[in-house]
Amino acid sequence: GGYKRSLEYLFYGEHPRLPGELARVMEDGFRPAVEYAPSHLNAAVPLSNSVGLCDLPRLRAAIAAEDSAPLQHGAAPAEPNRKLHAQLIVAKVFLARCAPETGVDESGGRRIPIRREDYEGLSSVYRCVEAEGKQREWFVFEPSLVLPEYLVEIEYLEAGYTPEHEPSSAQLQHLGTGLGGSLVGETLSETEAADVASLTRPLLRFAQQCALASPAEPYDDSCTAALNMPPQLRPRAKVYQIEPSVIAAQAQGAPLRELQVLNLHGSAIRTIQGLEDLPALRELVLCFNEIAKLDGLQSLGALERLDLGFNLIKRTDGLGPLPALRELELNNNLIYRVEDVALLRQGAPDISRLNLRSNPVCESKAFRTHVLRSLPQLESLDGIEIKRVEAEAAVRAVEIAHAITPSLLRLHGYAQKRFNYSLRPNTIAEDSSRSCASRTCNDNASMVPWERVEEIDLSHLQLRRLHGLEQLLGLRRASFCNNELSRIEGLEHCALLEELSLEDNRIVRLENLAPLALLCRLDLGKNRIGCIDGLETLTRLTQLSLEDNEITSLAGLAGAHSLMELYIGNNRLEVLNEVQHLKGLMRLIILDLSGNALCVTPDYRSFAVFTLRKLKVLDGVGIEPADMHSAKEKFAGKLTTDVLIERLGHSCWERVLE
């Protein structure tokens, strides 16, 4: 036969020897061709363009089972119409190179099983079932060419079957009105309902069954309430501390020295103690308690599994030693330091399964890499198996730039002079390569012109400390964004620094900024800063960014008199009077407080405009003359506590005599 290249939609039916195959195919696709040989005799995916041919094996098996099944005395007969309902898969098939079946045993008239070896170079084979050749069975050798798309249900009607009654046009129109109205969200006209009516014919029987079941029965509400009831869990006794009587109750008469499993979850336990007499304990469950410290576990040398999830643990020191511990659950606690993960190795050196999910530390950048680097023996982290490639990458990451080295500064340091026409200056490494092009140069750090470095960009390098910057005496611009820095340090020698960006790190406080007297721009957004202080010495600071922190007060900004732009949105500012701390900043023209709780206070904008008279932009919106006029009408001339304090210069009311 000739070759045919086309896409076809064909049917696939369930064979009685492969029960549940349709659901498996819809989930995982078709099996390899050879796996169909035991059930279908042919080593290929069996398909057909005929519903009857696909479902014939199932029908025959159902009829045979019904005829051979003995009817026991008093038992109800089998459901006669069960075999009349079936499911089929509609699959899109790329037939590629195909040909008719050729394997027929002429002596016996039997068909030879179809195998790929007998049809070399072909992708599929078809078999004509009737003389006209319209009904065909297809056998596809490559399952990847068969894509299951639809799962359809079919129902056979027995000979002589007559429907109870055909739906009337009024019924269809009524159903169409309801169906169409639910889709478009409004009532349909008669014409529109008539157009939708033809689509509702298959749903009429279902709608009638729903209508019959719709009248509320007396027991419907009680049944629904019963089904919606939350599970009734027997409350556990609150023991608060581990006492010998509590352990004895768990042992149920067995010797305590032989106890292997101890489960005290949900017992309001606050400290771990009293476990010294359990040398054989292998599993300890203390989840859903109030434990804050990992103490009292040193005597459990045989412990293999420890569950401390859903507690109040912040630090992991004091865990061990637990030489036999293999599985540790610390999920849903308060662990926030990456350094605490490394401490686990000291207490449990052979731990292989660790769960730290839902701890603040999980939000740290490259958290998973840090854990794998600290605990290279892990096999599973947070329920995810660790692959060898991932573990090796974490180990190699140790050598990547987590520390500031001279070579790193050469790659990311820039001088003022340009050697090309790009928008960015050459790096120090590029400058060195040009100067060494005509002579032999070594890579000695002493040969690097550090005094010429005016800018460094060390962002996105997973840095954990700022150090090694002592030679950058001429540095004016520095960026350390998106790293893992927890402190501001190492900048003491960079006295000429004008712009410093430390956005998206783990910094918790403002410190060590006094030497940077020339600093004009400071970006500390997306950190964990809770208090503003230490800015008094930055007399040239004009732009400050502190968005996305945990700041609760603006009092620390009162001395930043040179500030012109302040971005402090998405913090924890709640009291509107905090704006008063900015009243002395006479140069402040741009202020962003959006995302703070105080912004929802009534008259917030008017109060801020009235208090900060020089302000030009508030929360990204320009201040118009109408805004200033409205603010004056609301607040001008009112004798408030703040006005009295401003006029008197103090708040000691007992000293006021007149």
Q: Describe it for me?
A:
The structure is a single chain. 22% of the residues lie in helices and 14% in strands. The chain has 16 helices and 24 strands. The strands form four sheets. Strands 15-16-17-18-19-20-21-22-23-24 form a ten-stranded mixed beta sheet. Strands 8-9-10-11-12-13-14 form a seven-stranded mixed beta sheet. A four-stranded mixed beta sheet has the order 2-6-5-4. Strand 11, helix 9 and strand 12 form a beta-alpha-beta unit. Helix 4 crosses helix 5 and helix 10 crosses helix 11. The protein is extended. It starts with 6 loop residues before the first strand and ends in a 10-residue tail after the last helix.
Strand order of the largest sheet: 15-16-17-18-19-20-21-22-23-24
Major beta sheet, specifics? Answer: 10 strands, mixed
Q: Provide the β-strand percentage band.
A: 5-15%
- Globular, elongated, flat, extended or rod-shaped: what is the shape? extended
* Rg from alpha-carbon coordinates: 39 Å
Class of secondary structure makeup = alpha/beta
Q: Give the beta-strand count.
A: 24
Oligomer: single chain
